[in-house]
Every structure is written in structure tokens, then in C-alpha cells.
Amino acid sequence: MASPKTLNAKNLEALGAARLAALLIEVTTGSAAAKRRLRLELAGEAGVEAVRGAIAKRLTTIATARSIVTWGRVKTVAADVEAQHRAIIEQVAPADPAEALALLWRLIDCGNAVLPRSEDFNGRLLRTFKTAAGDLGRLAKDANAKPADLAERAFEAATQDRYEVLREMIPNLSPALGPEGLEFLRSLVAAWRTESIPGNGVVRDSAHARFTPEAAERRRRERDARFLLQQIADALGDVDAYAAQFDEETRTVPAIAAEIALRQLESGKAEDALATLDRAPPLGRAAHASHGWHEVRIATLEALGRGEEALALRWERFETTLAPAELRAYLAKLPDFEDFDAEQRALTLALQHADPGRALDFLIAWPALDKADRLVRGRAGTWNGDSYEHLTPAADALDANYPLAATILRRAMIDFALRTARSKRYRHAARHLAECGRAAQRIESFGDLAPHEEYVGILRTMHGRKAGFWHEVQRELPALFD
Known about the structure:
Blueprint: H1 9-13, H2 17-28, H3 32-46, H4 48-64, H5 71-92, H6 97-114, H7 124-133, H8 136-142, H9 147-158, H10 169-194, H11 213-236, H12 239-243, H13 254-266, H14 270-278, H15 286-289, H16 291-303, H17 307-321, H18 324-332, H19 339-351, H20 356-365, H21 369-378, H22 388-398, H23 403-419, H24 426-440, H25 452-463, H26 467-476
Helix pairs in contact: 3-4, 3-5, 4-5, 4-6, 5-6, 5-7, 6-7, 6-8, 8-10, 9-10, 10-11, 13-14, 13-16, 14-16, 16-17, 17-18, 20-21, 20-22, 21-23, 22-23, 23-24, 24-26
């Protein structure tokens, strides 16, 4: 049973209304935000109209303020916006969804006034406005907003959205907009995209024309209109309209082609999807990075009943990336009893791969630690000690059963840190040296590798003047200095 001194709602109720009221007055003294919260609660007791008036008044104050919201005040302003949002949702919306929707639009509009004058370095205030915008769809649905009216309001807000507060507005509003509202919104955006932009009419010369404010605004409008029209097309399931937002050259970018082809595939146009991908093959370095393009192509080939081609592409993808997920996907599509031979072929491929680092990552992740041991020992002089983020987990994974391989990787990191005088890594290098010492007791033969004591002696000879490293070693291995 909780102590009567525990701070919880039940124990506070025991204090009685009068005592609690006095305490609230006391603890809110000096806190404008807390006082505003209490006033909203009091307004709620007077009815939804009083709450609406209190919120509207506060939103006007927020929107018309001109002072800089310094870093220290961002949290306070964000809490104020959150309080108004909460009051709209919890106190106004249940009684009057239409009024709540109108207030929420006003709150979101405040972002255009507040964010430009805010030192919102970590995005706290921006996230507050985005969270509020996430409730637009639900309130619009509850309010039975007319599609045309909602489309006009959404258009007005979207074209003023300089901070991407409304990035997800159209997906959120699409159920309430329906096909009628979405089509109307599309017409508004298309007209806005092409309408002239007022300027002062002065252009210094053609070489500088693209740097004028009017040109910058034209570029921004084109970018924003394209994004809005893409989202509208997605909401309507209009694949052709989505694709039309990209010119022919842009459609040859593999990532863009994959987005278009995915939509074509999902709408049952697998042949069109394949044609789209064929016009945008990833080349050079892009072939390794274009994961989405390959995934869509594989799915498209399977949809067309070309399973053998899809399977070949999966294997080709694994050969390029050595990604465990690619191999698992390939093995899962093989007939029964063929997966073992294919796995062995994959492991052999990894051992022979031109990039030992990528091969090691694969063998550790698969896992095939015996093959990883063989790889490390077979390429003992090639490991890049700068790749500590890869070599450290690999050495840890190999340490228990393959201490020589773990030692090779740790020595590579030690040697790199000392050779390049990376003083920030000395602490880690000293730890690796201590781990090598413990592993040495389990190594039967070092082969061509210097035994541990000899290796320490080499370090003393070559790097004896790096006092920072030896200070860290003394902390890890005090016995070396006895």
C-alpha cells in the first residue's frame, strides 16, 4: 500500500479543494505558462465558447509577437503551443469539431510567424507544430468539412508552408477531401504553379537573371507544386499523374524510376513498370547503392512470371553487395535441398571477394566464423586499422574460438592508431593490446606473426615516445611496468 506521503492523485485529493487551490496559486506564481493552463481549465468550466475565445486570443498573441524566441525560450514557447493544441483537441473538438478545425488551422499558421524568429536549433518547436498538423485529418473528418472548402484551406496553408510543417498534410486529409476535394486541390496547385510571380521588373542582365528574388521564388514554387501534385496523385491512385511530375531526363535516375515503377506495379501495370526500369539502369557506383531499384525490378519480374530472371538478379545483387539479407532472399526462393549448395557457393564467393572488409562483415553477420577466421588469417597484412567500426565487432565475435584472427584485427587497429598518432584512439588501442595479451594464452602457434611479448617490444621500439598511449597501457596492463 502506497504511503500517504506519496505524490499521487489520490493523496492530493485528500487535501481538499481549498488547500489544492491555494497550492496551485502558489506553485504557478512566476510561471506564465502554468497560469495560462489554469485559465484554460477555468474557461472550460464556463463552456466551450469560453475556451474557444481563450484559445483564439492566445493564438493572436503568439502570431503577432515580434520578439526573438531565443534558445532558452524555445521550450517555453513550444509548451505554450502544445497547451493550445491540447485544449483544441480535448476541450473544443468533442463539442464543436468544425470550430476545433478552424482553431487548429490558426495554430498551424502561427508557425509561419514564430519559426522565422526562433533559435529552434534542435527542432523542438518545429516538431510541436508538425504534431499539431497531424490532427488535421481526424478533425476534418469529424467536422464533415466540405471538400471544396477544405481543399481551399489546405491550398492556402500549403503554399505558405516554408518550414515543411505540412509535409504529410495531403495524406492525412485525403480521406476527408475525397476524390472531389483532391481533384479541386490539384487544379488549384496546377494554376498556382504557372501563375506569374510579381517582381520589380528589373533584371541586370541574362547572366544574373537566375539569381533574382523572382527566380528564387519561381524555383521554390516549382519544387513545392511538384511535391504537392505527387502527393495528390498518390492519394488518387493516379500513377500517370505521379510520373508526369518528372521530366524525361529525371525519369532516368534509378531512384526516381523505382518510385514510378513501384506505383505502376502496385496498380497492376507490371509491363509498364519493367519498361520504366529498363530506361534507368543503375551504372557504376549507383549499381551498389540502388537497393530500391533492384527490389522493384525483382518484384516486377516475379509479377510477370519471370521467376528465373528474378532469381538470377537476386544472386547478382548478392555478388555485388555481399549483404546477408540479399542472400537470405535468394535462398528462400530456391527449391528444396538446393539451398545448402547455394550457401556454400556464397561463402566461397565471400572468401574470394576483392573487398576483404565487406567479405568480413558478411561472414561475421551470417554468421560463418570459421570462414571469417580463414579470411582474416589469409589476408593478414591487408586489414585497414582505420575501420574500427567493422574490425572491433569482428574481433569480439572471433575472440572465443579464433583468438589468432582476433589478434590480427586488433593489431591492425593498434598499428594504425600509433602510426598515424591518433591520440583519441590511444585508450581503445591500449584496450586492444590488453585483449591481445589475454588471447595470446590461447594461441598455440602465431605462425609468421610475432608472438605477443615480441609485438609489445616492437611497439616500445617504434612508438616508445608516444607517452599518451603508454599511459593508457599502464592503466590497462600495470604488470608491464612493474
